[in-house]
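Translate sequence into structure tokens.
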Amino acid sequence: MDMRYRHLGRSGLKVSELSLGSWITFGKQIEDSVAENLMAAAYDRGINFFDNAEVYAYGKSEIVMGKILKKMKWDRSSYIVSSKAFFGRGDTRPNMTGLSRKHLTEACHEALQRLQLDYLDLYFCHRPDKNTPIEETVWAMNILLQQGKILYWGTSEWSAQEITEAWAASERYRLTGPLMEQPQYNMFHRKNFEVNYAQLYKNYGLGTTIWSPLASGLLTGKYNEGLPSEDTRLTIEGMDWLKERTLVQENIEKVRKLAPLAAELGMSLPVMALAWCLKNPHVSTVILGASKLAQLEENMKAIAATELLTTAVMDRIEDILNNKPEQPIF
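Result follows.
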């Protein structure tokens, strides 16, 4: 099936249902030549959004992506690139992290240099900053918008209250509010996306670029019998926090029960997990994190797989997961 596109929230921008991220992989886990092959294959298959951040490989990820974009010479209007600011590039001295006007501005300029671009399509506040007034952050983003250095701004891993506060400040000063949020969303991480953000979709037309749709690889089934011998993101140095959060025995048992259902439907477990995310209409795009071309090609099957996830099938998945968040009564 050909790639499909969705509007990014309440905007005219169309993003491919599947997109390609560079966290952990670009500039760290894979060779630059592999990154190039992945981006070329993704673009050829209709993916138009490539996600990045200042902190990914401490800037190297953006450098790698920038070199690829320059080499490919794709029409600039045919693809979307993001960056995110908050964590910095490893130096934690004052003003080198956070969401102050100084850091947001400097991080944007540095990202443009590394990516070899004139502007960023999407610019995210990578985490909330309790030490910077929300008005300062909103004004900084709007100045970058007015300068044409970014086209849309958003948040990542912000609470519903924090996003609402950003919108309140935007409306108070008649500025542009955050269009999109980049949250974790998968079969095991649901409440924030399905419950806490519910009013944001309705009130602000919030778009979403979701990460970790496979729960850091757990939903591929490769951790069912423990850590495999080959390199995975959970075996990378410095990823102990991710391993502890991911390898929950209760969830592994659920993955084992999901596998036969996926086989019955004639698809792999990761394809079913990605298609499950795409069934949610509030998902604008699902960010893939492939390290091999075969992975990317397999994951692309999720577009067609959504047609097989009927209401009855979704109910069977829900019975296995048994973790549907309770919706509040308004």
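Note: Strands lie at 5-7, 14-16, 18-21, 49-51, 80-85, 120-125, 150-155, 180-181, 207-210, 285-288.
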